[in-house]
Amino acid sequence: MSFIAQPRTLVLPKPLHLRSGSTLSGVRLAYEMYGELNADRSNAVLVCHALNASHHVAGRYEHDPNNLGWWDNLIGPGKAVDTNRFCVIGVNNVGSCFGSYGPQDINPQTGEPWGGDFPVVTVEDWVDAQAALLDELGIQQLAAVMGGSLGGMQALSWTLQYPERVRHAAVIASAPNLTAENIAFNEVARRAITTDPDFHAGHYARHGVLPKRGLRIARMIGHITYLSDDVMNEKFGRLLHERTDFQYTTQDIEFQIESYLRYQGNKFSEYFDANTYLLITRALDYFDPARAHGGQLAKALAVAQAHFLVVSFTTDWRFAPSRSREIVKALLDNGAPVSYAEIDAPHGHDAFLLNDPRYHALVRAYFDGIALRAKP
Amino acid sequence: MSFIAQPRTLVLPKPLHLRSGSTLSGVRLAYEMYGELNADRSNAVLVCHALNASHHVAGRYEHDPNNLGWWDNLIGPGKAVDTNRFCVIGVNNVGSCFGSYGPQDINPQTGEPWGGDFPVVTVEDWVDAQAALLDELGIQQLAAVMGGSLGGMQALSWTLQYPERVRHAAVIASAPNLTAENIAFNEVARRAITTDPDFHAGHYARHGVLPKRGLRIARMIGHITYLSDDVMNEKFGRLLHERTDFQYTTQDIEFQIESYLRYQGNKFSEYFDANTYLLITRALDYFDPARAHGGQLAKALAVAQAHFLVVSFTTDWRFAPSRSREIVKALLDNGAPVSYAEIDAPHGHDAFLLNDPRYHALVRAYFDGIALRAKP
After folding, report:
1. Residues A61/A3, Cβ–Cβ less than 8 Å
2. B168-172 and B144-148: which strand pairing?
3. Please, are residues B257 and A180 in contact by the beta-carbon 8 Å criterion?
């Protein structure tokens, strides 16, 4: 039984200037904090979330005890990231549908929900918003910033946008940018949503509908890329769904993997917002710190002052170990302190969310080291 | 400039009994033949097609000279499969939309197009139909049967269903069955089609519409799986479409890979039939000769009498080399004659359609050997 988490919100006092050129005012951020800030406010750990996650990183809610934080297996009292030592902060990103300012909020220009008109947000914009939140919380420097996947991109970007505010960065199952194939999968998912007749250019709320068909397809595609071929074969293989022989049908479920994907797609379409899906996949597409440096990642990372922990998983084909090694190489080229682990795990990209003993022991050892080390 | 191909059709005199239990009567097959049958009719080579291909395997059409057969780079006078020596036959599979009997034909029970009621067809059914065509052409034994991908499954199945009618089988970029991940990609594509509001349970013709949205998504997903990550990075990388800087949009094209996929999706939706897409992906899902033998592929292949050429491509992640090696191992376990080549090619699954010199030299050498060998 995990501890009780308390969601909070805060409205940023200053406008948020986005990379797209747009400016958002009255930006509301949903966040949670676990553990106590120490006297010199030097023990804060910011956890950045990936696609469909939120500020609910660990613990459970008093009135919804089954709603465990998405990284509860890693973070909490006595856990690898020990909230008896660290004050862990989870922030929901701008553009999300889980409490922070997003497409479901009112566009002050029109008095109607933003919908498809919500401006594009980038990883850098999210980091700016997180930094503004830390300003309000009186936290000048993070003991660590950490995240997996898209969250790892935010952790990496923190070390470049606010190098003096980050002592350690844990970049897990991530990449310095998306490959063409990554973008391609995102694009197919987006097209499934935007060509759903119920999408209405993102203004489905006005029409009293939801583009659930598109969201289902998007989620099914996503799920395939989160899992490894191996784990899919082990979990589902060619097993039939509720029968022992073929029924010969093109439209009904025949294999268990089909049933699983349809279930995941249906569930997702009930709680996730289509405009948020577009915004978050685009933030992934755009992230590319080397771009402003002629594609030279080492140049881009030269400003970083943090110590790095980079972790990848052998069967992750969405963000393959080779992509993590690009980050490690660029850091080493700069003489930056970096620990790298490639965890031999069968679970594909999803491995970063799972309770793999070697992975968790590694994160624990790294965070023990942070706690033992004095503030520089 | 390639030779002129002449499409023909033939209606099978006997009904076709399908694995699903259904029976089709008056089955029309579209086919093409290149080269001359020799006196003892022992030089026929049957070429089986994959997903969106047809009986138009090689040559060009007199009145449509740009419409080259899909394997024209491999098959023709003086080519690797030399039509000066072999009589090559291409057959369009039952259920297709390119001339053979399919969902667009009239269901005799209703007097209307079959549409979504067309019975499920399997690889084994296709092979039966091809065998019935050969009966009509007076060809008792094939010098070789060959195919890539789904076509390779048909070639393999020929050696099991009609072992005495096949001297050689070339099984290229194929697999003994689909993995869970393969089925998953097929299922997402099918769901995109069947949840398109214009699909109408496959009876879109009655409604005067076409489920093009779904077909576009299906084709985009397919395209991603045909190409390797490497070739996508090389061809498209993170290049922007017609600009040098981000325009920050979720719904418009930003990257070249997006433009490419949308183009491919649009093109496909203009010429391919949605019901055919469902049928063909299901035939892929169902193929599994080891299933009737407790999953033991060697047992399933024990009846084969052919000599085998098995070819895979290193970067093919749809039908990975390991899947071809399963076939090779099962054949070797049976002491069957098999040559295996793993071609180091960057192009992913699509490599089997491309003009790779080592691959083509290998096929040429194998078919030279067939021509030199006397009929056993």
Report:
1. no
2. parallel
3. yes
**DSSP bridge pairs for B48:** B147
Do the chains contact at A249 and B120, CB–CB below 8 Å?
A: yes
* Six token digits for residue B123: 């690889």
Under DSSP, the state recorded for A116 is: G
CB atoms within 10 A of CB B62: 9
Q: Taking Cα atoms as reference points, which of A366, A68, A194, A257 lies closest to residue B183? A: A257
Per the CB < 8 Å rule, is B278 touching A250? yes
Q: What is the DSSP letter of A334?
A: T
User: Which pLDDT band, with edges at 50, 70 and 90, does A376 fall under?
Assistant: very low
Interface size A-B, in CB pairs within 8 Å, comes to 171
A233 phi/psi in degrees, rounded to 5: -65, -40
User: What are the tens digits of pLDDT across the range A201-236?
Assistant: 999 999 999 999 999 999 999 999 999 999 999 999
> Between the CA atoms of B266, B269, B270 and B272, what dihedral angle is there, to the nearest 10 degrees?
140
- Among candidates B160, B131, B158, B138, which has minimal Cα distance to B14? B131
With beta carbons less than 8 A apart as the criterion, state whether A215 and A269 touch: yes
Q: Which two tokens stand for residue B163?
A: 């072992």
CB atoms within 10 A of CB B369: 13
H-state helical runs in A244-345: 256-271, 274-286, 297-301, 321-333
Given a contact cutoff of 8 angstroms between Cβ atoms, the answer to whether B324 and B313 are in contact is: no
Kind plus residue range of the DSSP H or E element containing A171: strand A168-172
| Chain B environment of A188 (Cβ under 8 Å) | 217, 220-221, 224, 261
Distance CA B85, CA B368 (A): 9
Alpha carbon distances (Å) from A127 to A160, A163, A307, B17, B178: 10, 12, 18, 63, 43
With CA atoms as reference, report the closest residue to A161 among A179, A182, A142, A175. Answer: A142
pTM of the model: 0.96
Task: Report residue A155's pLDDT band, with 50, 70 and 90 as the boundaries.
Answer: very high
| Predicted local distance difference test score (pLDDT) of residue A374 | 52
Mean pLDDT over B34-54 rounds to 96
Tell me which residues of chain B, numbers 208 to 267, contact chain A at a CB-CB cutoff of 8 Å.
213, 216-217, 220-221, 223-224, 227, 229, 232-233, 235-238, 246, 248-251, 254-255, 257-258, 261-262, 265
Contact criterion met (CB below 8 Å) for B79 and B120: no
Q: How confident is the model at residue B191 (pLDDT cuts 50, 70, 90)?
A: very high
3-state secondary structure of A95: coil
Matching residue, tokens 């797609």 = A265
Evaluate whether A300 touches A84 at the Cβ level (below 8 Å).
no
Q: Measured in Å, how far apart are chain A's first and last C-alpha atoms?
A: 36
Please, are residues B132 and B14 in contact by the beta-carbon 8 Å criterion?
yes
**Can you state the angle between helices B180-194 and B212-226, rounded to 10 degrees?**
160
